[in-house]
Design goal:
The chain has six helices and 18 strands. By secondary structure, it is an alpha+beta fold. A hairpin with a 5-residue loop joins strand 6 and strand 7. It comes from Adineta ricciae (Rotifer).
Length: 330
Amino acid sequence: NGPLLQSQPQPQVIHTANRSNPMPSWRGYLPMRFEPMTMDQYQINTHFSQKVFLGGIPPELTEAELLLVLRKFGKCNIKWPKNDGLSHNMPGFCHVVFRESRSVCELLKHCTRQQRSTVDYFLHIHMSLTSSTLTTTTTTTAAGGQSSSSSGVSLRPNRLKPIQVVPWNMKDNVFVVQQENIAALDPSYKDWSRTIFVSPLHGKMTAFSLATIMANVFGSVSMAQINTDKYGYPTGTGTVLFCDSHSYMRAVAAGAIDIKCDCFHKLLDIDPFLRENEPCAFCPSVADLFCRNFHCLRSYCKQCWINRHGSKPLADHQPATRRQQPLPQI
């Protein structure tokens, strides 16, 4: 049945913010929801996005060769990162979009697994030293990987290359801490004046992880959401709704947070969530600026910003502008 998913050790949380060091920081194991089930049960019962991230792709591996391996698990296409035109080398990572999410489960069955806070998957590819012929194999690891026979054509002397596979569990899109404060998850009830926009998120940051870290550092959180694309895969941004204005103001005033865990080290920007037609706090016009200074924390149209921030001491305040912030949908 496979090994049991392990609970993680209690994280050591450090969050400092003072005049000499205004940047809040968080240290520890990435918080994850623990479900007592075997690895096999997890893969069968989980609704994965049909989009998967692949990392550590060997530069000598062509797209045609990679597709030859991946299409054993189901019909799929590869989405490479946008090329800036300066590099002609193959990027070492990409996204794969399968036609069906069950193909992702089939892919994971052929991966070795290692567990930290999260489960790391690796697809091992045999690459010939004298030709481009390749195949896949699955070996047994101490972390509880399965073993199966290799598939493909016979090879001349070869080497084994691991490619990291990062799937996304759709259950990790949203985490609600206090449902009574969300009015049965009705989005129209949400108080956007207590919502922040966070980016760029690491690919393993779940809504639960984000909510837990923000609550540890800034105060009570009602809900967190990871923004996703049409395939249900994270876009690298998220939103957090705080329970009270004080926690929200602490987060917005900080402007950023430094997160270092066992999976990654990332500096996240924190911005107020500005709706597309956010009203100005002082006139009927639409606001496109926000003052993150702790003494203001209001939305302004351009004219009202000039009127109220034209002279000292408010002239030193820096406005935050509305970036591409997709409206969270529950």
